[in-house]
């Protein structure tokens, strides 16, 4: 469910022109509109459907979704484009959709430039509008860039955060919190059980450890979740583990 209906000014300045889709959340997640724009264009259709009584198919679908208690789902297919690039991509996607293909892609990796590729609007806002934090508690930052994907469930996020890491167990056991960090932004917060870092396995001749914990409380999440820790990351650092106040 969408939790925003407009982008912040900072996000608007960062994403420039983009190509977007509107998705019907009912049944098979059908894409019913492809468009291009900038600013808050992606949100205008749902607002227009309420204000505009015209029997246009796009608006009829939106009104049906809203009357059923749902919300249109918004995704940016590509952003940080020039107006000409957005026009070309929009036209290509519409042509593809008109052909009626049903795909089951076998690509192992996403294409070049996927950082500005498909994301829902909440993820776009998080990426560009995240505020910097000042961490007061003993905390371990865990970079999960290689394992994270937007939309993963809480259990999966916890599992990829808690194992398997090369850590200094003396320092790690001083940390009461673990932050799952993706591209400099906190995606998960966990309270670490006291002295719970334990040896887990050997990998490439090195000892790997894991911790036990539980999801952080609401007060802690309100303070840190979806905030930026870029000020704490050492430029060029290769180690996915970083200790703060411990």
Walk me through the structure.
The longest helix is centred in the middle third of the chain and has 17 residues, at 83-99. The protein has two domains: 9-129, GIY-YIG endonuclease (3-Layer(aba) Sandwich); 139-244, no CATH class. It has helices at residues 9-15, 41-51, 57-67, 83-99, 121-129, 154-162, 169-172, 218-224, and strands at residues 17-24, 30-37, 73-81, 119-120, 139-143, 177-182, 185-192, 198-203, 206-210, 213-215, 241-244. It is an alpha+beta fold and 246 residues long. Strand 8 and strand 9 form a beta hairpin. The chain is built from eight helices and eleven strands. Strands 10-7-6-5-11 form a five-stranded mixed beta sheet, sandwiched between helices. The two termini are 38 Å apart.
- Count of individual domains: 2
Report the principal-axis shape: elongated
CATH architecture of the largest domain: 3-Layer(aba) Sandwich
Order of helices and strands: HEEHHEHEHEHHEEEEEHE
The strands making up the biggest β-sheet line up spatially as: 10-7-6-5-11
Main sheet attributes: strand count, strand direction, barrel closure: 5 strands, mixed
Low-pLDDT segments, ≥5 res: none
Query: Which structural class is indicated by helix and strand composition?
Result: alpha+beta
Number of helices: 8
Count of extended strands: 11
Helix amount: 25-40%
Mean pLDDT: 88
CATH class of the largest domain: Alpha Beta
Nearest-angstrom radius of gyration? Answer: 21 Å
Summarize this structure briefly.
This protein has eight helices and eleven strands.
Question: Top keywords for this entry?
Answer:
246 residues; alpha+beta; GIY-YIG endonuclease; 2 domains; five-stranded mixed β-sheet; four-stranded antiparallel β-sheet; 8 helices; 11 strands; 30% helix; 26% strand; elongated
